[in-house]
Amino acid sequence: MKLSSIPENFMWGASTSAFQVEGAYQENGKGLSIADIRSFRNSEKQLDTKVTSDFYHHWEEDLLLMKELGLKSYRFSVSWTRIFPNGDEEKPNKEGLAFYHKIIDRLREYNIEPIVTMYHFDQPIGLVEKYGGWVSRQSVDDFVKYAKCLLEEFGGKVKYWLTINEQAVMVVASDMLGIDKDLPIQERFCKAFQANYHMWIAQAIVFKMCREKFPDSYIGPAVSYITTLPATRKSYDMMAAKELEDFYSFAQMDVAVKGEIPYYFTNELDKLNFKLQTKPEDVRILQEGTANYLGVNWYCTTIVESKRDVPEDQFIFLRFNRIRDNDLLYTDWGWNFDPIGLRYGLRQLMDRYGKIPVVITECGWSEKEEIEDGQVHDPVRVDYLKGHIEQMNLAMKDGVNVISFNPWSFVDLLSVGEGMEKRYGLVYVDRTDFETRTLKRYKKDSFYFYQELIHDNKH
Ligand code: BGP
After folding, report:
1. Residue 117's domain is classified under what CATH number?
2. What's the Cα-to-Cα distance from 450 to each of 11, 57, 61, 62, rounded to whole Å?
3. What is the total count of domains within the chain?
């Protein structure tokens, strides 16, 4: 596979997040996060965060595997509760900081660029219990304190930062923010959008702080970008697709890059009869603190049709149906295989934000997998990677400024919704939902495919 538009310094990487891969959920001072608590609610049904893939004790082996693969970047997250176990401490937990120093130093030694997410679904439960988490403005200060600590501690050796992972996902699955999911829809969304607003303010403050202190650094959000396609070429379906894509994905990017809340977003909040609680200085905070690159999590397209009988004054999430396209392949969990969607999506980013650097922070295919004679054959994942990398190459030929590709995930890890059964890794981890087994790592076929691809594209 020759990828003529991909430059020599392109960062071929892979991705994970702390609560999904680390385990050691209470070791060396770590506190509990909302991600831990959510997972414990399902401990009877599937794996929880206690051990997962035990990266905390296997990190040296895993980083060696990254080196062997030839990775140029590794996108991972810092566990907020390893640094501030309860969230409201004055001083950080030294053992938590030490763990990430070891990781970052070893990555540097292997010439692998760390791309560090500050917050990936794991706000300290202490803050949720104390004042309701992100629903309260107090979270802004606690996040800024945490981010400042990370920048001071690691800013000299980390160039690429991501503030918040997939804010829109947390708004939709609002129990990820500690908001009771059984609340009536209107009340639940009003709380979730207030929380969303506080995250925008917090990240803007952190964008500014980082860009002032480290002018060579890159900082942005990691956005869930669901490229949304109309089920038909009828204008009402096209409108439904556009409105959903704007509201769910582009609102996050518009605020981060342009520094103001778009009209189409506030229009929808009006339909909920909801007025955000704001402060006069917020307009300036948003304008002064913008992202200088975009982290984009991209898995598949979503195809929608308009519910034409639902009036326009109803909230967006009530106005469309999701459609399955039987010409496409789907995972067991309903995520399609649609690589041209990636090129299309990347082109839309360029139309909207010009040459802003884009890091594909996640992209992956999930399967139920078993190991046989020490081997894991994952042909669909190989095809998925091949197809998406080809389309990314074409998008780059079109002019999109993609600087890094980080498939989800490096090793098998805890899926947010489906435990260990839903595997994404390039590396198999020998464990199941209920058996810890050996936790040994095995390279899947996709590992070898990606290794060869990186090698062949050194130029
Ligand atoms: C994204 C998250 C990841 C990851 C991935 C796959 O939403 O940023 O944390 O888990 O999706 O989702 P899932 O684990 O539900 O299959």
Report:
1. 3.20.20.80
2. 13, 25, 19, 16
3. 1
